[in-house]
Automatic annotation (TrEMBL):
Organism: Apodospora peruviana
Peptidase M14 domain ranges (all copies): 122-425
Official protein name in the record: Peptidase M14 domain-containing protein
Alphabetical UniProt keywords: Hydrolase, Metal-binding, Metalloprotease, Protease, Secreted, Signal, Virulence, Zinc, Zymogen
GO molecular function, one term: metallocarboxypeptidase activity
Positions of the catalytic residues: E389
């Protein structure tokens, strides 16, 4: 296995972390937790009240239709006695996390120096993801370079890969992807890795791929929230935010997708409580991650401009268009974005029949303030700016813990959707 040593070391040994080593916390156990989808019939508040006595862990923010929640073993009997309308998403969350955590060893590049497709058969450690990118880039030095969009709270690089075709580096409008904004959404890194992999591996053999890479420069950041991702592997699989502490609170973490400096000041789509999952921070753009991302995004906008931005998340199977901050606001080219999203959803469904719902983010899901898509649309003037929420729907299936056997199918259907979009937009 070949490493570009300096790059890898810079990512694996965060100096700030070593300097302020936090005391070792015990890994959170979800053994025996059962995850339910509870029908709310438009009254989530009443269900939440009934769950108040339990040490329940909520999964979703929009509880219009249903509330997804993990119930600890000691509360299961009392929960059952409530006689709520439920489906089971995980029989035993701890067991499913343990299964998911059986990472295959990364087998490194093949004889041709290209990492093998085995990569997509299991999840991996953060260190292996770093090595995978280093190896992938190293195999295609004529069409790619490693980039960084800044540094996390704990000093990790927000690294990425930049891909280009025949016009040479930086000569075309940008296609810009963010993965792992939310730490627990593991499938997102795998999907953007698969897209980067196919663009590079198929460039010389597939005419459609050549057309795409000759037309756009790709900037793919697989781990916008590297500290949070590492924390999901060391401490708590269900961690969402970054790992920033704030004076006056013992709670950790700011939601990177509520901290972008656009419509941040509105009060309807984020929390001012540092303990909340959607904590917005003290000031617009005040996390180290958002500072780096804003500067990097500005450089793309000021360069050849941004044709397409996708913020990859999970779960729910949605293609979400602008805006998050206001449910009646629409992008100037809303009709065009809707037509394209409809086409992408149809193409995605062709591989395995997976249904993706599409529509404006706020009216389809819920209001968000300080989100990347709104910033990219209005400040960076990206022509298309979407959030894609990957598998599963959550209905009769898992949530953030998507079985490893679904990594490749998820990636393949998104690759299909993207080839449609990239040749149609
Ligand atoms: O709440 C979020 O940040 C996203 N959903 S998630 O369950 N992955 O946390 C949705 C963001 C959608 N917002 C905009 N597109 N504006
Ligand atoms: Zn998310």
């Amino acid at each position: 296995m070949k490493l570009s040593t300096i790059f890898v070391q810079a990512l694996l040994v965060p100096l700030a972390l070593a300097a302020a080593a936090p005391k070792l916390e015990k890994k959170v156990s979800y053994d025996g937790y059962k995850v339910f989808r509870i029908s709310t019939h438009h009254d989530g508040a009443i269900i939440k009240e009934k769950l108040a006595p339990f040490a329940a862990v909520p999964f979703n923010l929009n509880t219009e239709e249903h509330l997804d929640v993990a119930i600890p073993p000691q509360d299961l009997a009392a929960f059952k006695a409530l006689n709520l309308e439920t489906e089971v998403l995980h029989e035993n969350l701890g067991a499913d996390i343990a299964e998911e955590g059986k990472f295959a060893a990364y087998d490194g590049p093949s004889a041709q120096a290209v990492p093998s497709l085995n990569w997509f058969n299991s999840y991996h450690s953060y260190a292996d993801h770093v090595t995978f990118f280093s190896d992938l880039q190293g195999a295609f030095p004529q069409n790619s370079e490693l980039i960084t969009a800044g540094t996390s709270v704990q000093g990790r690089s927000i690294f990425g890969i930049h891909l280009w075709g025949s016009g040479g580096k930086g000569s075309k409008p940008a296609v810009y992807f963010h993965g792992t904004v939310h730490a627990r959404e593991w499938i997102t890194a795998k999907v953007v890795e698969y897209i980067a992999y196919n663009l590079l591996v198929q460039y010389s053999t597939n005419a459609t791929v050549k057309t795409i890479l000759d037309k756009y420069d790709f900037y793919i950041l697989p781990f916008v929230n590297p500290d949070g991702f590492v924390y999901t592997q060391t401490n708590d699989r269900l961690w969402r935010k970054n790992r920033q502490t704030r004076s006056g609170s013992s709670c950790v973490g700011t939601d990177i997708n509520r901290n972008w400096p656009y419509k941040w000041e509105l009060t309807n789509g984020a929390s001012t409580n540092p303990c909340a999952e959607t904590y917005k921070g003290v000031a617009a753009g005040d996390t180290p991650e958002n500072k780096g991302l804003v500067a990097f995004t500005k450089s793309l906008a000021a360069g050849k401009g941004i044709k397409l931005y996708i913020d990859w998340h999970s779960f729910g199977q949605y293609i979400l268009l602008p805006y998050g901050y206001d449910c009646s606001a629409r992008a100037a080219n809303h009709a065009r974005q809707t037509t394209l999203a409809s086409g992408v959803a149809s193409r995605i469904a062709q591989s395995y029949g997976t249904r993706f719902t599409y529509g404006p983010s706020c009216s389809t899901l819920y209001a968000t303030t300080g989100s990347s898509v709104d910033y990219l649309t209005d400040v960076s003037k990206a022509e298309l700016a979407w959030t894609i929420e990957l598998r599963p729907t959550g209905s009769s299936s898992s949530g953030f813990i998507l079985p490893a056997a679904q990594i490749l199918p998820s990636a393949i259907e998104q690759w299909e959707g993207m080839t449609y979009l990239l040749t149609t937009m």
